[in-house]
Amino acid sequence: MSELELRQTTVDAEAVHDREAPRRGRPRVGTLVAGAFVVFLLVAAAVPSLVATQDPNAISAAEAFQPPSAAHWFGTDESGRDVYSRIIAGTGTSLLIGVTATAIGLAIGLLLGVLASFGGRVFDFGVGRLVEVLFAFPGLLLALLVIVVVGPGPVTATIAVGLSTAPGYARIIRGQLVAIRSSQYVEAARVLGRPPRRILTAHLLPNALLPLVVLATLGIGQAIVWAAALSYLGLGAQPPAAEWGAMLSAGRTYLQTAWWMTVFPGLAIVGTTIATTVLGRALARRERGAR
User: What is the value of pTM for the model shown?
Assistant: First the structure.
């Protein structure tokens, strides 16, 4: 290849890279849609009256079982209450349950992961066996066992979901901390005589925070689904509470005659789960690209 051809090839490659660089940095359409939906959910949770069309608890027997229309976008339930407004009113409760359950699972997982990574072989063995025992139970079954022991209710359901997600978080966090512990900058800190507590707080935990954020984003949707499933079974929030799982439970009796009472709360659960998962995967891609 001549010098002129080599120079032209280099120029073409740089031009392709310049065209592809903004495309790689540009958010995907799905990510933008998911982000907009999450922003809408946050607004609905913070100020439900801003996006609700009617009073979610207003009862009108004359308007019971009305299908979706311009007056009632998602129809009405057996008491004449606006389903759309009730979904908006339940957004804050469902998101609070999902975020709180995820925070409980991450806190327990972080504690177990740190003990397994820095507590020596005894703690590592004990935490490993405990996680394996908890993994023997499906997550939802473990939550059901906790509710059977403690009793039903929204608070109990939130704690149960958090406990059932903790084993998975513990295993991931332990692996992340072990990988970071063997890195060069941690070895350098040990050579300089830094105490283990200083290494943990200054090097290990800060570098593990971003993966934890990704895990939390992915886990919120799962926690919302599990909490809604418990409410659907009558073990979480109880009707007439405007919670998505409780609305599903109330609408199953009228599924053939008033399908909107079940379909639209179900779509809210599915849409929230998809949106948080898409954002979590976008954060994971950005984290991998930053490495």
Answer: 0.78
